[in-house]
């Protein structure tokens, strides 16, 4: 082979490798169930927010699972769990509750 032909092949090799990687990435993936949504409730379900029927203090001392169940249909987010802070937004939403969890129990509830 000539040197020119070797140089052309050497230049094409990275492109061929990239194309092979792209095709391999498009292979069918196994069907797995979608991951569960994050620890933030949605707004405005048809049933409404059942937690609006009682004071926020009623959530204090409940397990995280109980609180999440009570907050179905409400806007809420997890602010802190066992000292680990979670990201929040600076917008003020008076309907949204932010929960602090310590040892699996609701330690504090804040609005906004």
TrEMBL record:
It comes from the Bacteria. Keywords: Signal. Residues 28-47 are annotated as: Disordered. Residues 1-19 form the signal peptide. This is Lipoprotein. It comes from Cupriavidus oxalaticus. The lineage of its organism: Bacteria, Pseudomonadati, Pseudomonadota, Betaproteobacteria, Burkholderiales.
């Amino acid at each position: 082979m000539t040197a020119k032909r070797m140089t052309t092949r050497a230049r094409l090799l990275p492109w061929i490798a990239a194309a092979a990687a792209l095709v391999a990435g498009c292979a069918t993936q196994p069907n797995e169930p979608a991951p569960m949504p994050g620890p933030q409730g949605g707004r405005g379900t048809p049933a409404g927010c059942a937690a609006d029927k009682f004071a926020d203090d009623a959530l204090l001392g409940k397990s995280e699972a109980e609180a999440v169940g009570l907050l179905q249909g409400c806007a809420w987010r997890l602010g802190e769990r066992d000292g680990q802070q979670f990201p929040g937004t600076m917008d003020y939403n008076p309907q949204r509750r932010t929960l602090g969890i310590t040892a699996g129990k609701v330690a504090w509830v804040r609005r906004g």
